[in-house]
Amino acid sequence: MCCESKRRFLLLYATQKGQAKAIAEEIWQQAGAHGLEADMHCISEMDKYNLETEKDPVVIVISTTGTGDPPDTARKFVKKIQDKTLPPDHFAHLQYGLLGLGDSEYMFFCNGGRTVDRRLQELGAQHFYDTGLADDSVGLELVVDPWIDGLWLALKEALQLQKEKEDMNNAVSSSLSTAPHAVHELKLSSEVQNLKLEDEGARGSDILSQKLDNINLVAPARDTEPSLVHSVPPLSQSALNIPALPPEYIEVEFQDIQGENPHLSSLISEGRTFEVPVTRAVQLTREDAIKTALLLELDIADTAFEYQPGDAFCVICPNNVSEVEKLLHILGLSEKGDDFVCVKVKQGTKKKGAVCPQHIPERSTLKFILTWCLEIRAIPKKAFLRALVECTSDAREKRRLQELCSRQGASDYTHFIRDSNVCLLDLLHAFPSCKPSLSLLIEHLPKLQARSYSVSSSNLYQPGRLCFVFNVVEFPAGPSRPVSRKGVCTGWLAELVAPLLHTSKNSQGTKGEIFSTEKVSIFPRPNNAFHLPADPSVPFIMVGPGTGIAPFIGFLQHRQKLREEHTDWEFGETWLFFGCRHQDRDYLFKQLQCFLKNGTLTHLKVCFSRESSTAEVAPPKYVQDVLRLCAKEVARVLLKERGYFYVCGDKKHMADDVSDAVVDILSMEMEADKLEAMKSLAMLREAKRYLQDVWS
C-alpha cells in the first residue's frame, strides 16, 4: 500500500469554458497506463485537497479569462494564496508542474497561469517540471501534447526523489536540505519550430497502423491536394497515434411528460440575469457598406441592472433555429424535438468522478438543450473527433477522422478544422456515414456561452437605458463550410430586430428607427479598469476605429452630463481617434460633431481607409497613422500631464499597431531607444493608464 500511495499525484484544474478540464481529464485517463494515479479535482473544491499538507507532486491546468484574469473557478484559490500574511516558505514542501492556457491575440497572455505560478514560487514551492504555456491562437495542442508526453517521466522522477528523501530523511536530512532540487526541464512555448517530438510508444494513446491496400483507400489521381475529407502522402500512408477513446458517461432518457422548460436565468452561474425589452434599433451603416453595424437600446429602467461607461455586459443567445433542426434531422430525432428528456450519468461508466454537465438541465425538451445549452458551433476537439470515429461506418471517412485527431495529422487538424472554424454540422455534412448519439453530443459539446458586448451609453446621460453597438458577423461558405453563416449572437439579434429596421431610410442614408417589445436576457460583466479617470481634470486619449468607438460614446455622454451638472469643475482635454472604411458608408456616429461643438470633445481625428484621394500628399488611412501625426500632443498628454490612453477594437489588425505607434512616439519624443520606450509603455500599462478593451 505504501508503494502504491507513492504513485499518486494531485491533479487540479481551473476552467472557464471547459478546455482546462478536458485537458486534465486527458491527463487523468493517461495516468493509469504509466502506473500512476491522478487524484483529480476542480481547484475550487478546496475541501477535497490541502496544499498546505500535500506531499505528492501537484499538476495544475489553468486557463485565462477576461483581461488576463484567472477563471471564475480559481478566484477563491487565488485570493487565498495572495494573502500577504503568508510566509515565504509557506509552500516550501510543495512540488508542482503547471500548464497554462491562453490566447496570444489578447493582452496578458496566459496571465491566469502565470499569476498562480509566480505566487506559488514566491511562497517557496518548487517546480518538478517546467511550466507550459499553450496558445489557443495557434492551437493549444502544439504545446499541450508534448507537455503531457514529458510529464510522465518528470512525475516518476519527482516521486522517486520524494521516496529517497523520505527513506533517508532521518540520516541525512541536513545534506538533503542543501542538495539541488531535481527539475525535469522542458522548455515550451507556442513557437514550436525547434520542438522535436519523439515517438516513445503509445503514452496512453491508441496506436493505429493501417495499410492502404487493406482498406482500399487509393484516391483518384486528381486529388493531389489535401482537404477536410481527403489526405495525401505521407499522412495518408502513415501509422497513426490517436488519442485514447474517451469513456462514455452520459445517457439520455425520453420521457412522456408535459411541463415547461427551465428559465434562462437557471443556465447562468455568473450572477443575476435580467430580461429587458429592446426599445430601439438603428442600422448605423449604409446598405453598401462591407459590414452591417447595428445599435440597440435596451430598457433597464425597471431593473436593478447597474453599469458604468466602459463596462461590458453579456447577452444570453440561442443557436440558430435552422441549424438545430438540421442537427435533429441528422440525429434522426426530428419528431422528438419537443419531447422532454432526462440526462443522467451512465451506470458503470469508467469516467472518474462523472457528473452531468452543469449547463444541462435535469429535465427539459431536447430542442431546449440543443438551442440554449450546447455550443453546436464549437470547433470540435480531438477527443470529440476520436469519439466520432466510432460512430462512422464508411472506411474512408473513418480513416480521415482518425488522421484528423492523430498526432501525425496535427497540421491538417489546424488547417482544415481549427483555422477553418469547422463545426459539428460541417463535419456531419462532410462525413455522412457518421451518426453520433445524442449522449455523445452532450458529452463533448461545450456550454453555449453568453456573448459579451461593450456598453455604448451612460446611465447618467440616458437614465434607464443601455445601448450597445455590434457588427453582424459573417462567415462565408468555403471548402470546409458548405453554407455561409452569421454569428450566433449577432445573427440572432439582427433577425430579432429586423422588423424595426424595415422602414424608410432617413436623410442620412441609414435606416430609421421605431420601438419594439422584443426582449433579451442579459447580465452584467463589470470592467474593473476600463473606466474614465477618477479625476475629471486628467486628460485622456481614446482610439476606437469601427465598432471600437462604442464605449467612447458612453464616455463622452457621461462627460457631457458631468460638465452640465458641475460647471465649477475643471475638465481635462479629450482626444478621439476614429477610423472607418468610407466616410459616407460606415461613419458610425456623425453626432461626434455635437460633442466637439459643445466642448465635451476637445480634439476629433478621423481617417478613412478605403477612400481614394487626389491630394498631393495622401491623407492617413489608419488610426495609428494619425496618432503618429499627433506625436507631440500624444507624448505631452501621456508624459507631462499624466493622462490616460484607451484603445478599443480589433486586437490583431489594430490594437497591436496602435501599441507600436505609441512606442515609436515615446521613443521619438523622449529621445530614447525603442527598448526604453517599450519600458515606458509597460509602466503605463502597470499604472492602468494605458488600457485596452479588445477582441480577436
UniProtKB/TrEMBL annotation:
Enzyme class: oxidoreductase
Pfam families: FAD_binding_1, Flavodoxin_1, NAD_binding_1
UniProt entry tagged with the keyword S-adenosyl-L-methionine: yes
Compartments where found: Cytoplasm
Any single biological process term in GO: cobalamin metabolic process
Catalytic activity: 2 cob(II)alamin + A + 2 H2O + 2 H(+) = 2 aquacob(III)alamin + AH2
GO MF term set: [methionine synthase] reductase (NADPH) activity; flavin adenine dinucleotide binding; FMN binding
Listed InterPro entries: CysJ-like_FAD-binding, FAD-bd_FR_type, Flavdoxin-like, Flavodoxin/NO_synth, Flavoprot_Pyr_Nucl_cyt_Rdtase, Flavoprotein-like_sf, FNR_nucleotide-bd, NADPH_Cyt_P450_Rdtase_alpha
Entry EC number(s): 1.16.1.8
Cellular component terms (Gene Ontology): cytosol
Keywords carried by this UniProt record: Amino-acid biosynthesis, Cytoplasm, FAD, Flavoprotein, FMN, Methionine biosynthesis, NADP, Oxidoreductase, Phosphoprotein, S-adenosyl-L-methionine
Domain Flavodoxin-like: 9-152
Top-level lineage group: Eukaryota
Cofactor section: FAD; FMN
Keyword Flavoprotein part of the UniProt annotation: yes
Span of domain FAD-binding FR-type: 271-533
Description of how the protein assembles with itself and partners: Forms a multiprotein complex with MMACHC, MMADHC and MTR.
Descriptive protein name: Methionine synthase reductase
Originating species: Loxia leucoptera
Gene designation: Mtrr
